[in-house]
Amino acid sequence: MHRVTVKTSTIFIAKGGRTRVYRSVSEIPQRLRKELEESTNGFNSATILIADRRGRKEILRALQGLPSALRTRLAASMAPTQDGSPAPKTSRPLARFLRRNWPELLLPGAVGLLLWAALNWR
Question: Residue 14: beta bridge partners?
């Protein structure tokens, strides 16, 4: 038996309260394509690969505003452990952010304080 692999693309673009579906990037109007390229090259962009029918169903559920059937890391962290006790809480996002980025946050303030002190020294 021969195996056949089919590669397809579906691009959902929601803008202005409307959702449009395109089968390829070349089908997207030029103005909208430029916006798409700018938004997908940003800091918060990501690539999503959907390799099966279940992924397509999840997109349709999300577009309809229905909850996802997939387990998330949040749900897994809230699930009880084997002994019945709740899973240990992870540190808060703000605390993690401050722990990772404290030099970048303090350095501008320290430089500003030094400049102020140098300019106001009598």
Answer: 19
Distance CA 109, CA 112 (A): 5
Token pair for 25: 């990037």
Please give the DSSP secondary-structure letter assigned to residue 90: P
What average pLDDT does the structure give for the chain? 76
**Model confidence pLDDT, tens digit, residues 82-102:** 665 555 555 688 888 888 888
Please check the confidence at residue 122 and state whether its pLDDT lies above 80. no
112 to 44, 100, 104, 105: CA distances (angstroms): 30, 22, 13, 12
Q: How many other C-beta atoms can be found within 10 angstroms of the C-beta atom of residue 116?
A: 10
Closest CA to 22 of 8, 12, 14: 12
Which of 3, 8, 6, 5 shows the shortest CA–CA distance to 49?
A: 8
Instruction: Please state the pTM of the whole predicted model.
Output: 0.34
Which of helix, strand or coil describes residue 21?
strand
Largest CA distance in the chain: 89
